[in-house]
């Protein structure tokens, strides 16, 4: 009745206007009012949902939105939907000039007869104006509220704005804008979101009955919603719309009757929102999604502050094709959960990176990315949203053991020391670093080899790296300076998230003797990307989670290009790779590999590969990182919540297997790519004063992967040739 009174007042007010004034009002609307329209009406910027896809551009990971809405063009909307909304809301849409006084009068009569608000009298154009003004994020809450006030003044302004729009926009453009902004109930704004919400399909595929039902909802969306409201009312409104369509000639009475007789078949589809709402059965994608979101918040292209960038993600309507490879991710997830189940307190986070681009291909761990409660006493398993793979927030990372020997080798090679640099590595090595820890040597730190019988003796970089000889690499680090080793790690992207590590690196790097043994915390993502830099022959690329980002207008946002720089001379990286062939059971270009700690990798991957194992002190963590020219993968077995929970040496073989099989999947379908041998300048003269020891490892140090300790046939042949 309030609206009926408003309409009566409006009709009387318009009727009472002097002819000249009314004509002047119309003339002004026609000639100049468009320029005076609010920006939101001239250039509408409405909240839209952003979509995240895997790297195939088709596999949906999730969506982000404050308002569940996606713009579509008019030709993406079924014709029956366009006809239904016109029949239901504005039958004279294509003949009036924005405001329909005849329609207002008709609504007044209908409302008075019905004793309620059967009709509102607003044209689609007027409704569009109201919808824009009440949702414009640039207006104050008071201004947005005023856009729906039941006053003659507001209605007159609405008419004026509608008339101005009609002078500048085509009818089809106005209809398209209306269909993209109207609220259809159940959280769905716009016909695209409504089609998905109620029927699980795109608006182009709507049937006559489905279109009529949606068109009937806009009068009272929440009350009539067949999901959240009154299903009978929804069907009544559907019948009203079908009758109206028959009256306008859009359909025949027979078609209307047939559609009325159809049973209401809904396929409710809840639209995912955020990283905890990834596709069913793929909550492991949430860790990658979270990494992407945190990356997004650092990009100036999406706003000047993290808050603005978050708004852009949730309201900007972007189409984001990410770097996530669903097949690699699936293998990594299967392998991580094969080593440790979801409920295990220990974890195996795995990351895969593409050398030369930094594109992050997979991020897996035996956890559900979920806010669901965990069983009593279990802090982060099976559910967590902590960044266990990439680090950040409360996650500093994990010690990666001897994988850090790569940085010592690179620093030495860069300093001019060739691969043939030799040292008679003892079981224990007294150093210049003061120590009062148990097992010190006369007040100095003296690291030991884990397996003296297999590791001690004259070593060069090849077998020092292949057999992971601690005393050789601590000696080598002393030769080049530990500060150079620390700087090398940072150059390749190792980030010190732990305060103690950051302080040591900043203030006392030259005395960080144990750094080469991997005592600093890192993450699988940092480690994989550092080794990817070596795989790319010295080109470091920042980790990148997107292939493309497209704005709603179709323009590409310039954030997807790899950010790369040369941090090593190619020959230095090639030399390091030549030595890194030894741990994985392959042979260097100069035949100097004679034992490795992960020789099973060769048979699993079946093509040129390099890598390194790492065991932290007392086997608290076990690590393997492997790489080819096309992919680098790292996995670290650890307890993220308790550094004193030692994973044990037995799991190393499983970590190696998990990473190697992830590499194999990543290479499927790709051409075989080999490594380039280094120049003779960085090889040196590999003459050994004595043959390598041939004894088997001490039983105390044997692992499950006994074959990793056996000498390859080519090494045996090399030994025989030298007597």
Could you characterize the architecture of this molecule?
The structure is a single chain. By secondary structure, the protein is an alpha+beta fold. The chain folds into two domains: 2-31 and 71-261, Biosynthetic peptidoglycan transglycosylase-like (Penicillin binding protein transpeptidase fold); 368-721, Beta-lactamase, CATH 3.40.710.10. 41% of the residues lie in helices and 10% in strands. It has 28 helices and 19 strands. The strands form seven sheets. A five-stranded antiparallel β-sheet has the order 7-6-19-18-17, with helices on both faces. Strand 6 and strand 7 (360-364) form a beta hairpin. The longest helix has 18 residues, at 231-248. The N and C termini lie far apart (108 Å).
Derived structural class: alpha+beta
Summarize the amount of helix as a percent range.
40-55%
Strand order of the largest sheet: 7-6-19-18-17
In the residues, how many domains can be counted?
Answer: 2
Describe the main β-sheet briefly: 5 strands, antiparallel
Within CATH, the superfamily of the largest domain carries the name DD-peptidase/beta-lactamase superfamily
Number of strands: 19
Low-confidence stretches: 12-32, 694-723
Under the CATH scheme, which class of the largest domain? Alpha Beta
Helix count? 28
Give the amount of beta strand, in percent. Answer: 5-15%
Provide the CATH topology of the largest domain. Answer: Beta-lactamase
Label the CATH architecture of the largest domain: 3-Layer(aba) Sandwich
Report Rg. Answer: 34 Å
What sort of overall outline do the alpha carbons produce when their principal axes are compared? Answer: elongated
The termini sit apart by 108 Å
Mean pLDDT: 88
């Amino acid at each position: 009745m309030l609206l009926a009174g408003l309409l009566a007042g409006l009709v009387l007010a318009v009727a009472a206007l002097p002819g000249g004034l009314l004509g002047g009002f119309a003339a002004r609307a026609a000639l100049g009012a468009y320029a005076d329209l609010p920006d939101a009406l001239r250039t509408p910027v409405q909240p839209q949902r952003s979509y995240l896809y895997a790297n195939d551009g088709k596999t949906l990971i999730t969506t982000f939105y404050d308002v569940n809405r996606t713009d579509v063009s008019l030709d993406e909307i079924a014709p029956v939907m366009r006809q239904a909304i016109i029949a239901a809301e504005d039958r004279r849409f294509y003949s009036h000039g924005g405001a329909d006084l005849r329609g207002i009068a008709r609504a007044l009569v209908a409302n008075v007869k019905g004793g309620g608000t059967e009709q509102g009298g607003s044209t689609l154009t007027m409704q569009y104006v109201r919808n824009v003004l009440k949702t414009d994020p640039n207006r104050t809450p008071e201004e947005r509220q005023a856009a729906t006030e039941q006053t003659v003044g507001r209605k007159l302004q609405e008419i004026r704005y509608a008339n101005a729009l009609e002078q500048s926009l085509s009818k089809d453009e106005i209809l398209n804008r209306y269909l993209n902004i109207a609220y259809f109930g159940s959280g769905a704004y716009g016909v695209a979101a409504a089609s998905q919400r109620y029927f699980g399909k795109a608006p182009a595929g709507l049937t006559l009955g489905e279109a009529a039902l949606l068109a009937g909802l806009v009068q009272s969306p929440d009350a009539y919603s067949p999901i959240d409201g009154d299903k009978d009312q929804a069907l009544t409104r559907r019948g009203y719309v079908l009758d109206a369509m028959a009256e306008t000639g859009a359909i025949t009475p027979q078609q209307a009757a047939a559609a009325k007789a159809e049973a209401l078949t809904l396929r409710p589809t809840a639209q995912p929102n955020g990283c905890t709402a990834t596709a069913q059965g793929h909550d492991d994608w949430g860790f990658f999604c979270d990494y992407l979101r945190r990356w997004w918040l650092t990009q100036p292209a999406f706003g000047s502050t993290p808050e603005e960038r978050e708004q852009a993600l949730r309201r900007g309507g972007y189409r984001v094709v990410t770097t996530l490879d669903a097949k690699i991710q699936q293998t990594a997830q299967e392998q991580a959960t094969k080593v440790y189940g979801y409920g295990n307190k220990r974890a195996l986070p795995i990351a895969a990176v593409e050398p030369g681009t930094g594109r992050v291909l997979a991020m897996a761990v035996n956890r559900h990315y979920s806010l669901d409660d965990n069983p009593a006493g279990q802090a982060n398993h099976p559910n967590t949203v902590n960044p266990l793979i990439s680090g950040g927030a409360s996650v500093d990372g994990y010690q990666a053991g001897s994988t850090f020997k790569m940085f010592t080798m690179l620093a030495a090679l860069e300093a001019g020391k060739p691969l043939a640099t030799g040292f008679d590595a003892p079981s224990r090595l007294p150093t210049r670093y003061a120590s009062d820890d148990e097992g010190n040597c006369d007040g100095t730190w003296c690291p030991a080899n884990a397996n003296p019988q297999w590791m001690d003796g004259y070593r060069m970089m090849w077998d020092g790296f292949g057999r992971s000889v601690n005393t050789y690499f601590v000696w080598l680090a002393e030769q080049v300076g530990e500060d150079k080793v620390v700087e090398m790690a940072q150059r390749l992207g190792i980030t010190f998230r732990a305060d103690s590590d950051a302080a040591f690196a900043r203030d006392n790097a030259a005395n960080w003797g144990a750094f080469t043994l991997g005592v600093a915390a890192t993450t699988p993502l940092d480690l994989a990307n550092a080794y990817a830099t070596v795989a790319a022959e010295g080109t470091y690329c920042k980790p990148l989670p997107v292939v493309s980002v497209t704005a709603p207008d179709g323009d590409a946002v310039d954030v997807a290009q790899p950010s790369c720089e040369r941090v090593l001379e190619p020959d230095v990286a090639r030399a390091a790779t030549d030595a890194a062939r030894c741990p994985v059971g392959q042979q260097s270009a100069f035949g100097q590999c004679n034992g490795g700690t992960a020789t099973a990798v060769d048979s699993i991957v079946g093509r040129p590969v390099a890598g390194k194992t790492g065991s932290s002190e007392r086997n608290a963590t076990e690590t393997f990182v492997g790489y080819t020219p096309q992919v680098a993968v790292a996995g670290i077995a650890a307890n993220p919540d308790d550094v004193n929970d030692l994973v044990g040496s037995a799991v190393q073989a499983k970590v190696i297997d998990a990473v190697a099989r992830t590499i194999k999947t990543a290479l499927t379908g790709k051409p075989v790519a080999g490594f380039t041998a280094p120049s003779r300048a960085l090889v040196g003269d590999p003459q050994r004063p004595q043959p390598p020891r041939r004894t088997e490892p001490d039983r105390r140090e044997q692992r499950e992967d006994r074959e990793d300790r056996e000498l390859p046939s080519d090494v045996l042949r090399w030994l025989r040739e030298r007597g």
